[in-house]
Amino acid sequence: MTSPRVANLERAKWRARCRQQLSEHIKSKLGISVEPSQVRLITGVGDPYNWTFPPEKQYLFGKHLSKHSIGAYMELCRDIGVSFEAVAAGISTQCTTQVRQEQLEAENARLTSELKRWQDKAVKESELKGHAEDEVNQLQSALQAAQTDIQQMRHEVNNWALTADFFRKSTVQSYKGLNEAFLLLKKLKSELPALCNGQSLDWISPEVASGTVS
Q1: CA-CA distance, 118 to 151, in Å (whole number)?
Q2: Whole-angstrom Cα distance, residue 198 to residue 65?
Q3: pLDDT for res 96
Q4: Which of 5, 47, 49, 183 is the most buried (most CB within 10 A)?
Q5: CB contact set of 100 (below 8 Å; sequence gap of 6+)
Q6: Which residues, 6+ apart, have CB-to-CB distance to 2 below 8 Å?
Q7: What span, in angstroms and rounded, lies between the C-alpha atoms of 17 and 11?
């Protein structure tokens, strides 16, 4: 458990840090130099600055700095220039808050418009991607059909090659048979006189006898 002395030292450290950051914020925002020890959350008539803040931060500006807790100091340091800011003395806190609200609404509208633009872009890119995928699918289908046609043509060419080879072999075989028949007839012609032994050869056709059978 933290001792009261250590807790007070920690609280004093955060209070000093908070005063320093508030002083630097007043200087950068308004160009007014205020010593950290003189910074106030509850401003008076003689103070050259004021604070503008939303209603939900009212509790921070309803106490003097010296009365706040460590948590409040941390919150003040975190939200400087975010949820509250310094304004010149005499400017209505309510008016400045309204301006801030209008600025936030304008920023919200801008961000909403930007978001819609990116959403529209994403939808368009998605549609383009869909079209591209359709074209790829169509090309793949066309390629598959072409490959099928090529396979069919190869099959037909192979069949024609087999048919041509069959007829070529048949032609060669027929020619060989005719040649053998011609040689046999020629041989018979030369042997007929001896076989007939002088008998008449009138029964043999002139073509066979002359060896001119084609």
Answers
A1: 49
A2: 160
A3: 56
A4: 49
A5: 52, 54, 85
A6: 10
A7: 10
SS3 of 48-71: the string is CEEEECCHHHHHHHHCCHHHCCHH
DSSP for residue 113:
H
**How do strand 85-88 and strand 49-52 relate by DSSP bridges?**
antiparallel
Q: Which two tokens stand for residue 31?
A: 């160009």
The predicted-structure confidence for 119-145, as pLDDT tens digits, reads as follows 999 998 888 888 888 888 888 888 888
Q: State how far Cα 66 lies from the chain centre.
A: 57
Distances (CA, A) of 128 to 117, 124, 171: 16, 6, 64
Tell me the CA distances in angstroms from 175 to 24, 91, 168, 181, 213, one per residue in order: 118, 123, 11, 10, 14
- Cβ(189)–Cβ(211) below 8 Å: yes
CA–CA dist 132, 194 (Å, integer) = 94
pLDDT at 119: 92
- The string of DSSP letters for 66-97 reads GG--HHHHHHHHHHBTTTBEEEETTS-HHHHH
C-alpha distances out from residue 138 to 71, 124, 145, 147, 148, Å? 66, 21, 11, 14, 15
State the alpha helices, DSSP H only, in the chain: 4-30, 70-79, 93-196, 206-210
